[in-house]
Recover the amino acids of this structure.
C-alpha cells in the first residue's frame, strides 16, 4: 500500500471524527425540546395543508392542539369527526362531535334565468371583474362565473358547469375547508350543514335589491316577499334586506317554504322526487 | 424646450374632437337621482325625506366623517324617494331621487354673470365655504377640495399648481372651461392661494391647447403670482406627481403626498367651482361634461346638472345603436366602462365617451417576451411585468418590496404591451391587497 493513500485515509478519518464531535456538541447545545405528541397528532392529520382550520398547515394545527387545554375551538374540517377523535385520543381530551358541513353555492342565475346585459372581456378572474363593476348581468349580487372558487379548491370538489355557468359542488369531495368561501368576491358560497342523507334546504340567492329589481334581473331571484318566513313553523327563515336566509340549525327540512316560494329561489336538494305534480327546481343540484 | 415629467408616459392620439364645441346648457331632465357617493371617502347621509320640497342648491345630504362631503340638490321639485339606484358600474348606491318642478334656486345664490374680483372672506371662511358648497376635485378622483387646501400641521405649502393638462384623450371639458371662464378661473386660483397662504401659482397646460394658454396669458396682468407653463403632450401628465415633476422638477416620495414637497395641486375646473362657491355662493351641483366619440356625428360640451340620467344624453343620438359599442365614463385611459345607461351623472363625470367595438377590442393575449416596454412606459418607475407575475403568485412581501403601492393605475403598461397582457387588472388587485396588509401591520 502506498503511503499517500494511507495518509489520506488517516487524515480524512480524523477530520470526519473531529467534525462529527463538533456537530454533536452543537446539536446538544442548540437542542430544541419538542413535544413528541406533535408528531403523533400530525400523523393523524389528513395532510392536505389547506388552511381550513385557520392555521398555516397541518403541522401548525397540530402544535396548536398540543398547546391548547381543550379542543373546543379547534376543528379540522377536512378530517372531520374521525380525525378529531383520533387527536383527542392522543391528547386525552374530550371532543364534541360536529355535524359535517359542505359548501353550497347560493346563486341560481343560470344562462336562461339571468340574461347577460353586457360583454366582459377583461381578465378571467372573479376578483378582477368584481373590482371593475357589478357584473355582466342585470344582477349585481350574483355569480360572475369566472371560477375563482374552482382555482382555489385543493380537492377538485367544485367546477363550473358549462351549461349553466354556475359552480357545482361535489359534496363527496368537498371537505368544507372554506377556501372557496373566502375566494368568492360576491360572498355567494356558504358552508352549511350537510344534513341527514345529504338533504338540505337553502335560499339559492343573495340579491339584496327590492323585489321588482331583483326579479327583473333574474327569474329565480329571492324577492323578499316573506312568504317563507310566514309559512315556517320553526322560526328558521328570516328575511332581512330583501333576502331570505334559512338557519340550518333550526330548519327541520319540512319543505313548506320550498313549495311556498313564488320564484323558486329556495332549493331542496337530494329529497326523494315526488310524483310529478309541480316543476322541479333542482337545476343546479350537485350530482 | 417644453417640459414634461422625467420617466415613462405614453403618447395616445389625443382625439380632442370636441374642443371647438362651446359649452351648452343641457336641458333640465324630468327626474334626477343624486348619488350619495359623489366624492372620495364615506358616503354622505341624506337629510331629506320622501315628499320634501327642495330648491336648486339646497343641502340634501351631510358629510359623515372627515373625508366626505356635502351634497346639494341640482334641481327644484319634490323628493320622490330616498332609495338605492344603480350607478354606472351596476352597483346599488343610496340616492335621493327628485321629480323636477320648475327651476327655483335658493335665494343666497348669485345667479348673475357679473364677475366679482374682490375676495372678501378670510382663509378660514373660504375653506368653510368650499366645504359647505360640496366642492370636490373635478379632475376625476373627486377628492374633497377643502381637505387638500388645509395642509396638515407642520407642513407648509409653497406652490399651488393648477392642472390644466387634461392629458386624457378625447376630454375637452377643462379646455372649454379655460377658454370660456378664464377670468373666473383665475379668481378661483387667487382664492385658493389666499386660503393656502402661498405666493405662487402655476397653471400647467399641454401644448395642444394653445388657445387656452393665450387666453389665460392675456388675463394674467391683473393676477400677480400666477403664471402659465406650456407642457409637452404626454399621458399621464395630469397625475399629481407627474405634474409636480413636470413643472417644478420635484419628486414626491413614495407613499408621500404633494404637500411633502410643498405643493398643492388642483384642477382648473375645481378652481372654477371654487370661484362659484366663494364669490357666488353657488354649491357644486352642475359641471361641464364632454360628450364625444368617433362614432358620434356632433360632439358636445354640456353643462349638466348632477343626477341627470345618462340616457338623456344618449337620447340626442336616436340613430346610434348601442349594440357592440362601449360607453366610457371618464377618459379612455382611466375611465370605466358603463354597464347601466340609466345611471345618473356625478360630480366626477368629466366625460362620456362612446367608442365603437372595433376601437375597444382587446387583442389576443400571448406570452410576455420581456421586451420591457411596460417598464419604459411606467411613469412611477415600476416594473409592471414583474408585478404581474408576482401578483399571480400572490407574493405579497415581494410586491411590497418592489413598491406596488406606488402604482397609480394610469394604464400605460397595458396600453403599451405588445402581448396584450392584462397587466393593470392584476396589479390593481394586488395593490389593494398589499395596502390592506400594510395598514393592518400599522395597527
Amino acid at each position: 500500500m502506498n503511503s499517500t493513500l494511507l495518509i489520506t485515509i488517516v487524515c480524512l478519518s480524523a477530520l470526519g471524527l473531529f467534525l462529527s464531535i463538533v456537530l454533536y456538541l452543537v446539536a446538544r447545545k442548540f437542542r430544541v425540546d419538542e413535544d413528541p405528541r406533535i408528531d403523533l397528532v400530525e400523523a393523524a392529520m389528513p395532510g392536505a395543508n389547506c388552511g381550513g382550520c385557520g392555521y398555516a398547515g397541518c403541522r401548525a394545527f397540530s402544535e396548536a392542539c398540543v398547546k391548547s387545554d381543550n379542543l373546543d375551538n379547534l376543528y379540522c374540517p377536512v378530517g372531520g369527526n374521525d380525525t378529531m377523535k383520533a387527536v383527542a385520543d392522543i391528547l386525552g381530551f374530550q371532543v364534541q362531535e360536529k355535524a359535517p358541513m359542505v359548501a353550497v353555492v347560493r346563486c341560481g342565475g343560470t344562462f336562461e334565468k339571468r340574461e347577460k346585459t353586457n360583454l366582459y372581456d377583461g381578465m378571467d378572474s372573479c376578483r378582477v371583474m368584481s373590482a371593475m363593476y357589478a357584473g355582466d348581468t342585470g344582477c349585481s349580487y350574483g355569480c360572475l362565473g369566472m371560477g375563482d372558487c374552482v382555482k382555489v379548491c385543493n380537492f377538485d370538489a367544485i367546477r363550473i358547469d358549462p351549461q349553466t355557468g354556475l359552480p357545482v359542488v361535489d359534496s363527496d369531495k368537498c371537505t368544507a375547508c372554506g377556501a372557496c368561501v373566502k375566494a368568492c368576491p360576491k360572498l355567494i358560497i356558504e358552508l352549511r350543514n350537510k344534513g341527514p342523507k345529504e338533504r338540505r334546504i337553502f335560499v339559492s340567492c343573495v340579491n339584496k335589491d327590492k323585489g321588482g329589481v331583483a326579479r327583473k334581473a333574474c327569474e329565480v331571484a329571492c324577492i323578499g316577499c316573506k312568504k317563507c318566513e310566514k309559512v315556517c313553523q320553526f322560526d328558521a327563515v328570516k328575511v332581512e334586506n330583501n333576502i331570505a336566509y334559512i338557519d340550518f340549525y333550526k330548519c327541520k327540512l319540512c319543505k313548506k317554504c320550498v313549495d311556498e316560494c313564488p320564484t323558486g329561489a329556495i332549493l331542496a336538494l337530494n329529497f326523494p322526487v315526488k310524483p310529478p305534480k309541480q316543476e322541479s327546481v333542482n337545476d343546479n343540484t350537485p350530482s | 424646450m417644453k417640459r414634461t415629467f422625467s420617466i415613462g408616459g405614453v403618447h395616445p392620439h389625443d382625439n380632442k374632437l370636441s374642443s371647438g364645441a362651446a359649452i351648452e346648457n343641457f336641458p333640465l331632465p324630468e327626474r334626477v337621482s343624486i348619488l350619495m357617493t359623489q366624492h372620495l371617502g364615506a358616503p354622505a347621509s341624506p337629510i331629506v325625506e320622501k315628499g320634501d320640497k327642495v330648491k336648486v342648491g339646497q343641502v340634501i345630504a351631510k358629510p359623515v366623517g372627515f373625508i366626505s362631503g356635502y351634497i346639494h340638490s341640482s334641481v327644484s321639485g319634490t323628493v320622490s324617494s330616498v332609495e338605492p339606484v344603480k350607478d354606472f358600474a351596476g352597483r346599488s348606491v343610496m340616492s335621493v331621487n327628485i321629480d323636477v318642478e320648475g327651476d327655483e334656486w335658493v335665494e343666497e345664490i348669485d345667479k348673475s354673470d357679473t364677475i366679482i374680483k374682490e375676495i372678501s372672506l378670510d382663509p378660514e371662511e373660504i375653506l368653510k365655504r368650499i366645504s359647505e358648497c360640496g366642492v370636490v376635485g373635478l379632475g376625476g378622483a373627486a377628492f374633497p377640495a377643502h381637505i387638500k387646501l388645509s395642509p396638515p400641521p407642520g407642513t407648509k405649502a409653497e406652490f399651488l399648481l393648477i392642472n390644466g393638462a387634461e392629458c386624457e384623450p378625447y376630454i375637452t371639458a377643462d379646455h372649454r372651461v379655460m377658454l370660456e371662464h378664464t377670468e373666473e378661473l383665475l379668481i378661483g386660483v387667487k382664492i385658493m392661494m389666499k386660503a393656502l397662504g402661498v405666493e405662487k401659482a402655476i397653471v400647467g397646460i399641454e401644448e395642444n391647447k394653445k388657445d387656452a394658454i393665450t387666453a389665460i396669458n392675456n388675463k394674467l396682468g391683473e393676477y400677480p403670482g400666477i403664471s402659465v407653463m406650456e407642457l409637452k403632450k404626454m399621458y399621464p401628465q395630469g397625475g399629481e406627481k407627474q405634474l409636480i415633476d413636470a413643472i417644478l422638477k420635484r419628486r414626491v416620495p413614495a407613499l408621500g403626498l404633494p404637500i411633502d414637497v410643498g405643493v398643492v395641486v388642483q384642477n382648473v375646473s375645481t378652481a372654477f367651482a371654487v370661484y362659484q362657491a366663494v364669490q357666488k355662493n353657488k354649491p357644486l351641483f352642475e359641471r361641464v361634461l364632454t360628450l364625444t366619440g368617433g362614432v358620434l356625428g356632433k360632439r358636445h360640451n354640456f353643462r349638466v346638472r348632477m343626477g341627470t340620467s345618462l340616457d338623456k344624453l344618449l337620447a340626442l343620438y336616436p340613430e346610434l345603436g348601442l349594440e357592440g359599442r362601449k360607453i366610457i365614463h371618464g377618459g379612455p385611459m382611466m375611465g370605466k366602462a358603463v354597464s347601466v345607461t340609466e345611471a345618473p351623472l356625478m360630480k366626477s363625470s368629466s366625460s362620456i365617451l362612446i367608442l365603437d367595438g372595433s376601437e375597444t377590442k382587446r387583442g389576443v393575449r400571448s406570452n410576455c417576451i420581456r421586451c420591457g416596454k411596460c417598464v419604459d412606459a411606467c411613469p412611477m418607475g415600476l416594473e409592471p411585468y414583474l408585478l404581474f407575475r408576482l401578483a399571480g403568485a400572490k407574493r405579497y412581501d415581494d410586491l411590497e418590496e418592489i413598491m406596488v403601492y406606488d402604482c397609480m393605475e394610469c394604464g400605460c403598461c397595458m396600453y403599451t404591451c405588445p402581448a396584450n397582457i392584462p397587466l393593470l387588472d392584476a396589479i390593481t388587485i394586488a395593490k389593494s391587497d398589499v395596502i390592506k396588509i400594510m395598514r393592518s401591520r400599522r395597527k
